[in-house]
Amino acid sequence: MSEAMAIDPDFAWRTFLARDRAYDGKFVGAVKTTGIYCKPSCPVRHPKRENVCFYATAGEARAAGYRACLRCRPDDIARDEVAVVSALKLLAAEQPMGLEQLAAAVGYAPHHFHRLFKRATGVTPAEYARGLRAGRAEEALAANDRVTDAIYDAGYSGPSRFYAATKGRLGMTPSAWKNGGAGAVIRWAVVETSLGSMLVAATNKGICRLSFDEDEAELQKRFPAAIIEQGGDALAELVIGAVAAVENPANMPELPLDIAGTVFQQAVWKELQRIPPGETRTYAEIAAAVGKPKAVRAAGSANGANNVAVLIPCHRVIRTDGTLGGYAYGLERKEKLLQAERNAG
Questions:
Q1: Which of 31, 94, 111, 304 is deepest in the core (most CB within 10 A)?
Q2: What is the pLDDT of residues 133-144, one digit of tens each?
Q3: Is 314 a catalytic site residue?
Q4: d(CA 2, CA 295)
């Protein structure tokens, strides 16, 4: 099993009630009346709360006299994790592999391994591979004067493959990625909300920046070579949606986003979007949910790298001791957002 996370019994019980697969392999629940232990996603009928205790590992449960559930087979998690780690190494080797080839290499059926990989990493094998290659492209773009050279250095067969693979992920052209937004048109507006002055900025693909107490000057710093334009009809609908998200975060509309991040950052952001309004998670819980229980600090950094406040609800992450922790736009705003969500619930 993976390295155990610290167990909060109340949180662990909630994951069992939700049959949350994201925590399979992170701990087990042992039933005193039956003498068996299960993983959180076990489909069997739930016992009474007072009859359940939790162990960090299956080994600890066995040492306490419990045996593995024959329905959910919690001991198989170790085999699954070995397969995922092997797949990650194969994908990192820069050799293109399709799902069938990858699954066969680690001894699983393609459909089953696709689910297994996504549950462990938060992304599909194809998404992970694209992220790795795009990350290499970003490094190559920073190291090369010519975009074309960087594309080949990153492992793409040619410019057309790079543009096709990164469409919708980068949001800007590869040269803009390197040159401070060159070639991108970014429209912006500043509106007043119950949380104060809010900046909304978007490319033609979606919102690329939502922040507080900022204005056009901040966009100029971030994208000095981009075309920065104020407002306009093209932005009006997104501004309305962004204001609605702030004023009613429990029922925020789905808005298109134009953001880019590493594979790990994207996995963290997806996990943040899974947190129900009015609820919170700790940095440790987020790290565990994306399959990296040791990467608590990295999860915090990914949380802080979020460029679209509220829309990716980084305000729903708190410290393990229950305190609010940090927030780029002030703890008062964070507390107001959480309180508004709780009141709506």
A1: 31
A2: 766 665 555 555
A3: yes
A4: 12
